[in-house]
Amino acid sequence: MLLMVFIATSAFAKDAPVQTLVWPESGKPVLRFSFFKFKELGSVATERTYVTDTTVENLSSKPIPNECFALYLYNKSKVRIGEGWITLSNVGPGQTVKFQTTIEASGTPVSLSVLEATQVPRTVSLTVNSVPQGAGLKVDGNEVGTTPRIVNVGMGQHILEFSKDGFNAGRFPLEIGLNDVSGGSVSYELGTSSFDTVELRDGSLLSGDLISVSGMDVSIRIGGSTQHIDRNKIKRVMFVERDVPLSDLQQPPTSPRSQE
After folding, report:
1. How many domains does the chain have?
2. Beta-carbon contacts of residue 114 (< 8 Å; ≥ 6 apart)
3. pLDDT class for 47, splitting at 50, 70, 90?
4. Greatest pairwise CA separation for the chain in angstroms
5. What is the mean pLDDT of residues 156-169?
6. Burial, 202: exposed, middle or buried (Cβ in 10 Å; 0-12, 13-18, 19+)?
7. Is 94 left (phi over 0), alpha (psi -120 to 50) or beta?
8. Of 160, 177, 192, which residue is a domain's last?
9. Which of 15, 59, 165, 220 falls between 20 and 30 A from 241, CA-CA?
10. Which of 3-17, 136-150, 176-190, 230-244 has the lowest mean pLDDT?
11. What number is the average pLDDT over the span 1-29?
């Protein structure tokens, strides 16, 4: 069930009134949503992060064990420019719960809607950055702009592709699980030459020349210094293809040892 309420731009101002809507839109209402003023937390290029104090009241005589809603933001042209999620659990009859809702938006919203999550394919928003910034970014082969960039991706496996003049293009495998939530980030370092890559379990990447791999650790040379990384901190190691030096191919065969 989709609910929409139109709000003036002033609803994002200091003295904005509370915006209220009920769910479902037709029939006897079960929930009443109230959204207070939206506060901008920060921005990256055209991407903005808002937070709003939210209250939800159970108007029914039955408890709500678990329910999830998508919150969408629209611009003046009625184009969806942002989204957030509202999850309710163990809300008793007549009970009101209060919390904050964070929403990512590309621009200034003027209207919002609430959609029951069972009708929406679940997505996760995250910030994708690169070193240096300003690299062209593709998600699953589709161009989405330049880094840093907030992107929305669904459950499953994805490929992030980076490109920038003067640097080698790069690819980063990304997997979104059922328990992943919005607000994470990915940073990819573009090199001027081909490097091996060590991906750690905390999501960070190390690029350099791999020296050795053992049962205890991995040794990698980064910026002229060698680092030893505990193997339990490593998620995967990705190797680049290297050409065998021509001198190694042209070495004369070793002379057999002369017999005495």
Report:
1. 3
2. 2, 3, 21, 23, 33, 69, 70, 71, 72, 86
3. confident
4. 105
5. 83
6. exposed
7. left
8. 192
9. 165
10. 3-17
11. 59
Average pLDDT on 221-241 reads: 82
Q: Which two tokens stand for residue 122?
A: 């679940």
Domain boundary among 67, 101, 120: 120
CB 28 within 8 A of CB 51: no
Secondary structure percentages of the chain, helix, strand, coil, to 5: 5, 60, 35
Let me know whether 131 and 182 are in one domain. yes
Query: Could you say which DSSP state residue 26 is in?
Result: S
Q: How far apart are CA 195 and CA 12, in angstroms?
A: 47
Indicate if 10 and 93 belong to the same structural domain.
yes
Instruction: Tell which wins on pLDDT, 122 or 126.
Output: 126
* Same-domain pairing of 18 and 105: yes
Cβ-proximal residues to 107 (8 Å cutoff; 6+ apart), any chain: 46, 48, 75, 81
Q: Which has the closest alpha carbon to 183: 157, 213, 152?
A: 152
Higher pLDDT, 241 or 72: 72
Query: Rounded to an integer, what distance in angstroms lies between the CA atom of residue 179 and that of residue 122?
Result: 11
pLDDT tier at 98 (50, 70, 90 boundaries)? Answer: very high
The answer to whether residue 34 is domain-embedded is: yes
Which residue range forms the structural domain that includes residue 203?
195-240
Domain membership of residue 6 (yes or no) is: yes
Evaluate if residue 55 carries a pLDDT over 70: yes
Residue that wins the pLDDT comparison between 48 and 15: 48
Whether 80 and 156 map to the same domain: the answer is: no
Residue 184 inside a domain? The answer is yes
88 has a pLDDT exceeding 80? yes
Burial 119-155 (b: 16+ CB within 10 A, else e): eeeeebbbbbbbeeeebbbbbeeeebbbbbbbbebee
